[in-house]
Structure to design on (609 residues):
């Protein structure tokens, strides 16, 4: 049975410990510093080297309809039941591992980039090739240089491949909790067997609703082609407010119509061609 | 760092506090989807791969004809297919983040992945084209005669079939993604790829036929090109209607004008007009050939701009969160 995350946004305090823990354990390079002016979110989005991203949904009073509220949500790869990235991958680098999670084998991926537009959640991305010149090497800190000296096995050692959350595959194999869940001080991020997590999440929703909180689960009992998410969320606002699609679509569902249309066009043109080259 | 730095006002009207004219809630107007990384090398491959596929069909059509000039055309088409099959892999390999791992594409056959099937289609197409070229070399007595075991009645239809696949799969590959513009074209884009590929192949083979002094079949190539180009124009117009607001990045603004000028008008309408002129107006052979070459060059340019527009418009489409929230089923 699959392991996954239950991310409860009502418990998130926006401390970004998950982002930091993820970066540290997985040896992911910094994104640089930028002030976005969007509440307290300077990370902006998940990327090939950012596998947890805390979104800050800050509302102010406008007229009479909006209450002044602030909610945070730690976004992550959804580890979908039907994963668009995994289906698209032509090398078989993206697999479902023994813990039921979607994992990119860093030594197999050749950086074709097809998984990137195939993720309906916009999670996976290519990592910039890592090629420090002698002049530039001084700018990198020692940790980066150490990583560069490591073998191919070090995930980001040379870049040029796709990157996303591994659900701490290495930690799971050691029997550890993934770094983000371990570091989360409020248990907003919970790790475990997905079925157990779902049972816990349903109870939590019930309790919140009793208290008058408009809570809903995202990624549980889904009827979309993507199916349930092994990393699912408890939300208090519509999914779009957290940059989540309300109804994600599995891209491979477009293929039958596409192949049929191409075959039809080719057959029609072949018939026309036969008539033109033989009709005399 | 930010592609479009938001104004402070945008920041505070994000989420629920949105303005009335915005189409729905979003996270500070941040893109939901990641932009595809494909650049000029993939665009060129989509263009040349389509032409290569279409040339496979011409190999069979002309090769199975009873007219000697057509058979000569088929021979030229076979050499052209193999040349294109040699150019395409380096283009594809150059776009990889880790080019030295290109062979990882061949470690599995994956029916769910159009890119995996496409790579195998390319490999098989190269084999069929190679067999056909060996037969021709044997016929031309520059290769051993036993190589005529690569019998055209089998290998030409095979190359045509694989050609149709290589021309069409690129369209399936693009539309089987989450990019709203591409997903919306799940029927139109694959059909367009086939039509544009064949039109481009007719154009290329017209030029090759004229250069090689075999201009008799040109008239037939131009008729086939007219059919393919008309189908392409019809599909393009229908896609514009079908895509509606999702088609904006492709059909409006600077990119839309470029598509109209270079593909719809320059790449389809003007070549069609030139071909009709060639068919009805009496003109000396040299002028007739010059007209054919001009029409073909325009068709090829239009085909390239079509692929470029699809890829670049897809990147814009990926950046629109409101489009991405309404992912086409």
């Amino acid at each position: 049975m699959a392991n996954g995350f239950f991310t409860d946004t009502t418990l998130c305090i926006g401390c970004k410990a998950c982002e930091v823990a993820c970066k540290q354990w997985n040896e992911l390079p910094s994104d640089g510093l930028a002030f976005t002016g969007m509440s307290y979110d300077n990370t902006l989005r998940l990327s090939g080297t950012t596998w947890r991203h805390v979104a800050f949904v800050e509302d102010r009073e406008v007229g009479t309809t909006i209450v002044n509220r602030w909610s945070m949500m730690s976004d992550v790869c959804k580890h979908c039941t039907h994963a668009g990235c995994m289906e698209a991958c032509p090398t078989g680098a993206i697999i479902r591992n023994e813990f039921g999670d979607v994992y990119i084998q860093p030594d197999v991926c050749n950086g074709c980039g097809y998984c990137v537009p195939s993720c309906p959640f916009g999670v996976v991305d290519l990592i910039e090739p890592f090629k420090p010149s002698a002049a530039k090497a001084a700018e990198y800190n020692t940790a980066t240089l150490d990583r560069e000296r490591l073998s191919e096995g070090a995930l980001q050692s040379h870049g040029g491949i796709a990157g996303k959350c591994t659900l701490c595959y290495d930690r799971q194999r050691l029997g550890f909790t993934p770094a983000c869940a371990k570091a989360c001080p409020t248990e907003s991020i919970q790790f475990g067997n997905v079925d157990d997590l779902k049972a816990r999440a349903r109870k939590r929703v019930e309790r919140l609703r009793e208290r008058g909180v408009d809570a809903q689960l995202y990624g549980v009992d889904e009827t979309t082609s993507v199916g349930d998410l092994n990393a699912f969320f408890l939300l208090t606002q519509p999914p779009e407010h957290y940059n989540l699609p309300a109804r994600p679509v599995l891209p491979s569902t477009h293929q039958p119509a596409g192949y049929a249309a191409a075959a039809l066009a080719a057959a029609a043109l072949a018939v026309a061609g036969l008539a033109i080259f033989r009709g005399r | 760092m930010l592609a479009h730095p938001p104004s402070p006002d945008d920041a505070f009207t994000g989420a629920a506090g949105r303005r009335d004219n915005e189409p729905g809630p979003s996270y500070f107007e941040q893109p939901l989807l990641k932009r595809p990384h494909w650049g000029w090398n993939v665009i060129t491959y989509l263009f040349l791969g389509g032409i290569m596929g279409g040339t496979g069909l011409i190999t069979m059509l002309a090769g199975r004809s009873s007219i000697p000039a057509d058979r000569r055309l088929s021979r030229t088409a076979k050499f052209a297919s193999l040349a294109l099959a040699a150019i395409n892999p380096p283009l594809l390999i150059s776009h990889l983040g880790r080019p030295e791992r290109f062979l990882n594409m061949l470690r599995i056959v994956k029916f769910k992945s159009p890119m995996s099937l496409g790579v195998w289609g390319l490999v098989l197409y190269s084999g069929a084209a190679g067999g056909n070229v060996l037969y021709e070399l044997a016929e031309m007595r520059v290769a051993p005669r036993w190589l005529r075991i690569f019998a055209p009645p089998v290998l030409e239809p095979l190359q045509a079939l694989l050609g149709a696949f290589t021309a069409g799969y690129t369209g399936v590959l693009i539309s089987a993604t989450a990019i709203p513009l591409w997903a919306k074209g799940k029927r139109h884009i694959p059909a367009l790829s086939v039509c544009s590929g064949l039109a481009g192949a007719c154009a290329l083979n017209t030029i090759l036929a004229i250069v090689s002094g075999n201009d008799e079949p040109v008239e037939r190539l131009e008729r086939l090109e007219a059919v393919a180009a008309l189908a392409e124009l019809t599909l393009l117009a229908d896609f514009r209607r079908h895509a509606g607001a999702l088609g904006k990045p492709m059909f409006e603004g600077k990119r839309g004008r470029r598509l109209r000028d270079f593909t719809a008008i320059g790449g389809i309408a003007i070549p069609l007009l030139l071909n009709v002129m060639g068919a009805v107006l009496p003109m000396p052979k040299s002028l007739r050939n010059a007209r054919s070459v001009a029409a073909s060059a325009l068709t090829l340019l239009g085909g390239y701009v079509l692929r470029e527009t699809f890829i670049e418009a897809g990147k814009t489409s990926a950046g629109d969160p409101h489009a991405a929230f309404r992912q086409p089923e």
